[in-house]
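Priority: medium. Attachment 1 of 2:
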């Protein structure tokens, strides 16, 4: 993928995404994994996790991560510019004219109609990527518990992330120790 192709890919993603960073996931996956085949599903999932863990806006973080993975620092700059150019222009235009149509009934209905579509855009890749992440019936309780803690109990996502990192490290150490115990000793 050339730098121009990278810019154009992220420009298209930025232009056709309504609803922000998470709504971009299916478009990014389609463009980068399915169409361009420049990332595997596992690489895409890893870059999503990295982008989510970085401070800042998810869409820009994802453009940064993908651009860097494909073309280094220059790729990051091209992907970021492609990703934010049109949304920034649209936001500026909306900000200039918002006072003229903010109380318009038709505009309110349009935004009400877009909301369910945004939820679907976010939910669809979650199910597809859960399979690629190795989520099974035995492990599906982890994201469900995390979602409930955040949504129902108001626990900060930061604490949920920190807790899952610690649990993952401990679980990995325990699994590693168990695997060593199960391996037969080699004799010389």
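Attachment 2 of 2:
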């Amino acid at each position: 993928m050339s730098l121009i192709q990278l810019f154009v890919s992220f420009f298209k993603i930025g232009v056709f995404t309504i609803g922000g960073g998470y709504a971009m996931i299916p478009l990014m996956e389609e463009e980068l994994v399915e169409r361009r085949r420049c990332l595997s599903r596992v690489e895409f999932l890893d870059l999503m996790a990295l982008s989510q863990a970085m401070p800042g806006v998810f869409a820009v973080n994802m453009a940064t991560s993908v651009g860097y993975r494909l073309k280094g620092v220059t790729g990051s700059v091209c992907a970021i510019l492609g990703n934010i150019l049109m949304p920034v222009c649209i936001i500026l235009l909306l900000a200039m004219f918002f006072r003229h149509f903010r109380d318009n009934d038709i505009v309110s209905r349009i935004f009400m109609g877009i909301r369910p579509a945004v939820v679907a855009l976010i939910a669809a890749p979650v199910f597809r990527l859960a399979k690629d992440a190795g989520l099974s019936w035995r492990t599906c309780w982890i994201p469900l518990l995390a979602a409930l803690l955040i949504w129902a109990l108001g626990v900060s996502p930061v604490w949920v992330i920190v807790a899952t990192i610690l649990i993952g490290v401990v679980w990995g150490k325990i699994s590693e120790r168990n695997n060593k115990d199960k391996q037969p000793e080699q004799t010389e």
